[in-house]
Amino acid sequence: MGLSDRGWRGRTLPFLVIAVSVISADGLRVRQPRCPFGCTCTKDNALCENVRSVPHTFPPDVVSLSFVKTGFSGITGGSFVHTPVLQLLLFTGNSFDFIDEDAFMGLPHLEYLFIENNKIASISPNAFRGLKGLLHLSLAYNNLETLPRDVFSGMEALTKVDLRGNNLICDCKLKWLVEWMHHTNATLDEIYCSGPPSYQGKRLNDLLPHSFDCITSEFASYQSLKFESISVEAFTFGMDQYVVFAQPFAGTCNFLEWDHVEMTFRTYDTIESTSTVVCKPMFIKIQDIDILKIRKPNDIETFMIEGESYFVIADSSKAGSTTVYKWNGNGFYSHQSLHHCSQRPVIYQWNRSQNQFERRTDIPDMEDVFSVKHFHVKGELFICLTRFIGDSKVMRWDGAMFKELQTFPSRGSMVFQPVSIGKWQYAILGSDYSLTQVYQWDAKKGQFVPSQELNIQAPRSFSVLFVDSRVFLLASSFKGKTQIYEHLIIDLSNSTF
Questions:
Q1: Where are the transmembrane segments (predicted)?
Q2: Is residue 355 domain-shared with residue 423, that is, in the same domain?
Q3: Helices and strands: H and E segment counts in the chain
C-alpha cells in the first residue's frame, strides 16, 4: 500500500504541477500565448522575420524582441502595449520609414532600443514618450535628415545615443540637439553633417548653439482698410501714435489712431483737400503753397540742415521745378528752385557758404526714374531708384558717385522703398502688375535677397509704426484696400514638424 501509494504520487506529481499552472484563481482554464506565426521564440527571446504587422501576443517570459525584414510601413502608436515586460527591442534591415506618436507606449522596463539599418525618414515628436528607463537608443543608419525638437525629452536615464549613418542637415531645426548634447549625460558617437553646404562634412558634436543664426522675421497680414490711398505717414503726437493716408479719390487726409484696447487702427479725423497726393503731419494749417509754382507734385520730403527746417516738393512735370522751402519762424518760403531738363536723376550737394544746393552730377543710364529713396547700412549710404518700365536699382555711394549694386525687374513699379526695423533692413518693391516683393538685406552678401511676397493692389507708399512693443508696416493701395501688416520675429529653432 505504501510503496504503491508513493509510486503513484511520483508518477502523477508532474501532471499535477502543470495542471495548477494553467488553472486560474476562479477555476477557469487559461491558454498560454504561443509564439506568433513568422516568429521564433526561445526561453526569453523572440525573433520575427517577414511579418506584416507587430504581433499582439508573445510568451510571457519574452523580454527580448527582434524584427528583421518586416513588411509593415511604420511603427504605429501602441504597438507594444501587450508586451509590457520587454527589456530589449531591436529593428534591423526593415523597410518601414516612420515612427508614430507613442509607438513604444506601455514599455516601462525597456532599457535597450535599437532601430538600425532601416529606412526611417521621419519620427513623430512624441515617438519615445514614456521610455523613462531607457539606457541605450540607436537610430543608426537610417534616412533621417532631422529630428523633431525635444524628441528625447523625459528620457533622463539615457547613457548612450547613436545617430551615425544618417543624412542629418545641421540647420536651425537641429539647434536644439546641439544644445541637448551639451547638457545631457548621455554619450553620442561622432555625427557628421550632410548639409547645409556651410556645415557639410563637419562634426555635429563640434558645433555650438551660437553657431546657428535662427532668428528671422516676416510681415503678417493684420488689418485691411476699406479705402484706397496714395501715400501714408506714421507719426507720434501727445504720446499717442497716428497714421495719415492721402486719399486722392475722396479728397481727404484720413487720420487713424491706434486703439490700445481693441488693438486695431480706427478713424480719428479727416481733413478735406483737392486731389490729395501727400499728407505730411503738421497738425495745424499755417499756410498754402502757391499751386502755380507746383504743376505736378510727386513727393514731399522734410529735412533739417544745420538746425534749420526745410522741405522739398518734387515736381514731375516737364515744365515745373522741384522747389526747396525753408522755415523762417512764421512759415515756409521758397528758398531754391532745382530745375533741370535731364531725364536722369541729378545729385545736388549742400554748399555751406552759399546756403543752398548746387548741382554736382547726374546718374547715367537711369532715365525715367520715378522716385529715389535712401538708407544707411553700417554707415554706408545707399539709394533705391524706382522705375515703372525697366529695372529698379540699388546703388551705393563710393564717396564720389553712386555705383550700381543690384538690379530688380520692376514692370509696373511705382514704389521701391527701403524700410528699417531694428537690425533688419528691407527694400519693398511694389507693382501694379504682380505681387509686392519684400527683400531683406544679407550682411554676408552685402546685398538684398528675396524674403517674401505681399498681396497689395497697386501699392504707392509704405510706412512703419512702432506701438505697444509691436511694429506695423502700413501699405497704401491706389486701386484696392489699404493694408496693414505686423512685423513678426520668428525663432526657427523653435519650430516643430
A1: none
A2: no
A3: 2, 33
For 196-226, what is each residue's pLDDT tens digit? 998 999 999 999 998 898 999 999 999 999 9
| 3-class secondary structure, 107 | coil
On whether both 372 and 357 belong to a single domain, the answer is: no
24 within domain boundaries:
no
Q: Say if residues 186 and 158 touch (Cβ distance below 8 Å).
A: yes
Cα 68 from Cα 62, distance rounded (Å):
17
Cell (9 digits) for 432: 501694379
Domain enclosing residue 476, as ranges: 214-228+231-276+366-496
Co-location of 330 and 404 in the same domain: no
| Helix residue ranges per DSSP H, 87-202 | 175-181
What band does 9 get if pLDDT is binned at 50, 70 and 90? Answer: very low
Q: Tens digits of per-residue pLDDT, 68-126?
A: 999 888 999 999 998 999 999 999 999 999 999 999 999 999 999 999 999 999 999 99
SS3 231: strand
- This prediction has a pTM of 0.74
Q: Is residue 34 part of a domain?
A: no
Q: Nearest Cα to 461, choosing from 294, 237, 299?
A: 299
Residue 110 and residue 104 in contact, taking contact as beta carbons nearer than 8 Å: yes
Angle at 167 between CA 163 and CA 172, to 5 degrees: 90
